[in-house]
Amino acid sequence: QVQLVESGGGLVQAGGSLRLSCAASGSISSINAMGWYRQAPGNQRELVAVITNGGSANYADSVKGRFTISRDSAKKTAYLQMSSLKPEDTAAYYCHADALVRYWSGTKRYWGQGTQVTVSS
């Protein structure tokens, strides 16, 4: 019903930049929020950034000033621009969307397949 396809991960040196994309498709009535969590081996999953109704964005303290999240409603796509990357940003990044499916009550959370971001020192 709803699929999220992520792209943009890769290997980059410290101080570099990457842009992640998350495109939603399917029988979507509306998307209330989109964002990314990340998880590295041995670490807990943490919320990186989320963009909500009206375009309001929230970020983890560790990425404030370095990451920017945006969305293109027409394309049902969110973007995470990551700059000044640090080795501690290395993780698997999973996008999510809180979406309302056609002909179904309530909002559900859907997940992308994940994309690996590796920052070398």
Question: Which terms would index this structure?
Answer:
single chain; 121 residues; mainly beta; 0% helix
Strand content is: over 45%
Alpha plus pi helix count: 0
Molecular shape: elongated
Largest β sheet strand count, sense and barrel closure: 7 strands, mixed
Q: How many beta-strand elements?
A: 11
Which range best describes the helical content: under 10%, 10-25%, 25-40%, 40-55%, 55-70% or over 70%? under 10%
Task: Compute the average pLDDT.
Answer: 96
* Cα distance spanning the termini: 41 Å
Radius of gyration: 14 Å
- The succession of helices and strands, N to C, reads EEEEEEEEEEE
Q: Which structural category do the helix and sheet elements fall into?
A: mainly beta
Runs with pLDDT <50, length 5+?
none
Notes on the structure:
The protein is mostly beta strands. 0% of the residues lie in helices and 61% in strands. The chain contains no helices and 11 strands. It has strands spanning 2-7, 10-13, 18-26, 28-39, 46-51, 57-59, 67-72, 77-82, 91-101, 107-111, 115-120. Strands 2, 4, 5, 6, 9, 10 and 11 form a 7-stranded mixed β-sheet that branches. It has a 4-stranded antiparallel β-sheet with strand order 1-3-8-7, with no helix packed on it. The radius of gyration is 14 Å and the shape is elongated. The model has no long low-confidence stretch (mean pLDDT 96).
